[in-house]
Design a protein that fits this description.
single chain; 369 residues; alpha+beta; eight-stranded mixed beta sheet; four-stranded antiparallel beta sheet; 9 helices
């Protein structure tokens, strides 16, 4: 059993100085959805996701010796340069929960500056990018403060994925480029419930694959993803759902490796609608899709029928549509978005995104430039 608990990670007070770490980490879109968990952020079924590019979180952590002797993690958090006490409390609670891994967290004062390139809490997995960026910063901080800690690149990202999972399950997938798998499955070697792994063997048909995000609604979700996961415990359809997800997972692996775009698209759409059906069958039930979400789905299906082009949709836990398609059809499909779908977006907003190459260590990038 993997265990990162390390009581030796205590700083000598005479050697504590100020410093900073900085990462940018992307959101991700699950094609096979993770919805329902147990234990300490463990999934009920394996999931597989696209790592995005434009939709990301930028996190800078400045640290210094703590001014007081208070035995707790001290954090000031600024979201888009404004102090945000709600997020601050969440981050402090998370950091307190991992002091068994990083006991030095209680020795420092932290100022965390974070910002998203996309609307927060509207269903673009802001917790995935946010918590993965934070986890990557923590792993960099460990390396910076403890020279004796040695990790290979693969070990670094595995630990970041493990820590990100403890903050937000889907965040563990965001530390890897292109596509990632989270959840133990005998169909994938080295897969684990504890951390994600990179997906290998992706067919060239998915190179430069697009995921354009249509912003239908920008407000806070009426039910958080955390609450939605909890409601799966009493959902009448939960067990059948987990069986279905495992079956679809296996089928999708084959489609991704063979380049079967039609099977990929069918699974992507069915998984999206299944996710929202589970919300509607929870107790209490709730609906996150908006009327314009359904209108866009109708138009996308009609476009695919008329043009025979491989344009498919997905949704995360929110009302916004993700449009998935190969790069060969970019010009036609983006013209369709501008002419037919943009009027159904909030203030006409949409994000032209695509499969991305994973997180960036901005501290290293700054030093290298």
């Amino acid at each position: 059993m993997l265990n990162y608990t390390n009581p030796k990670l205590i700083l000598e007070r005479s050697k504590i100085g100020p410093g900073q770490v900085e990462w940018r980490s992307p959101s991700n879109l699950a094609i096979i959805k993770y919805w329902g968990k147990h234990g300490r952020q463990l999934p009920r079924n394996p999931s597989i996701s696209f790592t995005l590019d434009e939709a990301h979180t930028h996190t800078l952590i400045k640290y210094r010796p703590k001014d007081s002797n208070v035995h707790k993690v001290d954090v000031n958090l600024y979201f888009h340069q404004v102090r945000n006490e709600q997020f601050e409390q969440k981050v402090q609670t998370f950091l307190e929960s991992i002091v068994d891994i990083y006991p030095f967290l209680r020795q420092l004062q932290f100022d965390i500056y974070t910002s998203n390139s996309f609307p927060h809490s509207a269903g673009i997995a802001s917790s995935a990018s946010g918590m993965s960026a934070l986890a990557l910063c923590l792993c960099s901080l460990e390396q910076e403060l403890f020279e004796e800690v040695e990790m290979t690149e693969a070990e670094f990202y595995q630990k970041a994925s493990y820590i990100a999972r403890l903050g937000s399950g889907s965040a563990c997938r965001s530390v890897y480029p292109r596509m990632a798998i989270w959840g133990e499955s005998n169909a994938v070697d080295n897969s684990s419930d504890l951390y994600a792994i990179p997906f290998t063997g992706l067919h060239q048909s998915f190179d430069n694959f697009h995921d354009d995000i249509l912003i239908v609604h920008k407000g806070e979700k009426s039910v958080s993803s955390r609450a939605g996961h909890a409601l799966m415990e009493g959902n009448l359809y939960a067990d059948n759902r987990y069986t279905q997800a495992r079956q679809r997972f296996r089928t999708l692996l084959g489609a991704l490796r063979s380049g079967d775009m039609e099977v990929f698209g069918q699974i992507a759409e069915n998984e999206a609608l299944t996710l929202h059906a589970l919300m509607m069958t929870s107790q209490p039930s709730y609906i996150l899709m908006q009327p314009n979400s359904l209108k866009i789905i109708e138009l996308v299906r009609a476009y695919r029928q008329d043009t025979k082009q491989p344009l498919y949709f997905s949704l995360d836990a929110g009302p916004n549509l993700h449009l998935l398609y190969p790069d060969d059809f970019r010009a036609d499909i983006q013209a369709f978005i501008r002419s037919e779908l943009q009027p159904y977006c909030y203030n006409g907003e949409w994000i032209a995104d695509r499969m991305g190459e994973g997180p960036t260590n901005l501290q290293t990038k700054l030093l290298d430039s």
